[in-house]
Design a protein that fits this description.
This protein is an alpha+beta fold and about 230 residues long. It has helices at about 20-25, 50-55, 120-125, 195-230, and strands spanning about 5-15, 30-35, 45-50, 65-70, 75-85, 90-100, 105-115, 130, 135-140, 150-155, 160-165, 175, 185-190. The longest helix has about 35 residues, at about 195-230.
Amino acid sequence: MSQEYRYTLNGKLRQDKGKGASRRLRREGWVPAVVYGGEGESISIAIKQDELAKNAKFDSFYSQIINLKIEGKEDTEVLVRDVQRHVFKPLFQHFDFQRIVRGQDIYSTVSLHFINEDEAPGVKEENGVITHFYTSVEIVCQPRHLPEYIEVDMGSLSIGDGVYLSDLKLPEGVSLQQDENLDSTLVASIGHPRLEEEEEEESDAQAIEDLIEGEGDAEDGDAESSDDASDE
């Protein structure tokens, strides 16, 4: 393939299947995976844990077309469709990859990159607070149009302003999967500082602490009175 890829993975075919075989692979530093869709049958493969970890630290790994080499012989274009992680260890347990067919639309989730937030009048001049309601969006496009991310420029917003789905500047050939309520679905907004609310919360928390301490003192006093009574 002549196209340049940002991500390339190397896998090997899995002959043994089942939980026992998967556990053995993981102990040896491999991650079980499956490749499906497109014009081929589903196949079971394994990829080195270290190789996945090196690539998966980038957000775009989960939305960009990956060149998958199997046994060093086949080149397959795939997208990450599902990832299973260990409950508490920083390890991958399983990957699902979907084949890409050139000329057919693909559905993907792409990260939003917010820019110029510190320069927004609502932040720089009015000390407003930015809230992100979305950090990614679901899109549909041809493989050649798949973006690495979508920029959201916050530089002109004041307090009370927001960016809606309909405001997103989508690259050529890209559209949102969601086609309803685009004008009323907020992506991000700038609101008033929460200082007064935080002060009220701190005051409430202090009142609760004082109440607890007061009850504790009262219980100590009751215990002392009881001890005095028993001494008598």
